Amino acid sequence: MYCTKNITKNLVWVGANDRRMALFEGIYEIPDGMAFNSYLLLDEKTVLFDTVDKVVQSQFLENIEATLNGRSLDYLVLHHLEPDHSAALEAVVAKYPEVTLVSNGKSFAFVSQFFTIPESIKTLEVKEGDTLCTGEHNLRFVMAPMVHWPEVMVTYDETARILFSADAFGSFGALNGAIFADEVDFARDYLDEARRYYTNIVGKYGPQVQTLLKKAAGLDIEMICPLHGFVWRKNLNEILESYTLWSTYEPEKQGVMIAYGSIYGNTENAAEILACRLRDMGIKTVMFDTSVTPSPRIVAESFKWSHLVFAAATYNTGIFVKMEAVINDVVAHNIQNRKVALMENGSWVATSAKLMRDKLSACKNIEFLGELSIKSSVKPDKLAEINDLAKIIAKSFE
Ligand code: FEO
Predict the structure, then answer these.
(1) What's the CA-to-centroid distance between 128 and ligand 1, angstroms?
(2) Which residues share a beta bridge with 105?
(3) What percent of the chain has pLDDT over 70?
(4) How far is the CA of 84 from the centre of ligand 1 (A)?
(5) What is the mean pLDDT of the chain?
(6) What is the pTM (predicted TM-score) of this model?
(7) Residue 205 — pLDDT band, cuts 50, 70, 90?
(8) 80 lines ligand 1 (CB under 6 A)
(9) Which residue's alpha carbon is at the smallest distance from atom 2 of ligand 1?
């Protein structure tokens, strides 16, 4: 049976939720599921904005059929060709062969790479600023390259003042009956997943997101309809301000995120002692064991906090593998503007601090506050050094 939600009197959410996938993109855990959003505008012409992932294709097709209620499908706007939004394309054109596909040149190149679409299917190629009148509504197309693929574009409905924002402003997590962000306590219950989604999927492309935000600032936007997560119709600044911080790599919170990679617990012990001393000085701390917490969560927390401490055992004369993966991931996502301290452990040779520093040095505006080296386990003489490192970190908050 179809399951749809009205966004406005003639705009309908025809997407679907999935709570069975273990991993999104084969990488990211989605314990709260995933929403694959698609919207259908019922104007004089009918316009479908994007499709969905193959896992929810049958529900999606049922939703479209019910919403069209016998009408034909005139346009399908493709904002982004990543298969979580395009996988149902072949099924849509098979069912609605009268449809015209609307997108940019790069998208159409990807369409032919991913799919086999009958040559009889009509296409309309659009460029920055082009418009399409569908009756009452006037749609304007805005290019958003590398947010986070090169073909990405967004659509601004000038009539309803709605921005169809592609992946931007999306989130991990299924929609549990609600469709609008103001129906839930977003900051309490969903911001962490929005951050984990943004930082891991789009985080590398901060300057491109900034470009999109500047374009969006020139539009009179009443509502944002992203391809994942909630629709925003109130307090748009709540999500826009988060995006401004994340895309400029500015921390949201003052405090220390400590991630440690420990083989037998001795590096963990050093990290715990450091956290206790920092708390004694009134500094907020959070801690993650890289052997337990997935790297994408630590990437997201690295974007959240102002100070980062990485503590790692030396392993095969390198960085302990779990921590090495985290450091690689943090660097790959372009972290910037952070104060960093490092701790290493090694029984016969300790190399991990230097190796972590070398990797993190590739990032912009990283200030290294200090390093500490342990041989096998924390001995009484090391307590003063850990205390001194805590003092240096604490002083950097002044
Ligand atoms: Fe939700 Fe980039 O796809």
Answers:
(1) 21
(2) none
(3) 100
(4) 6
(5) 98
(6) 0.96
(7) very high
(8) yes
(9) 82
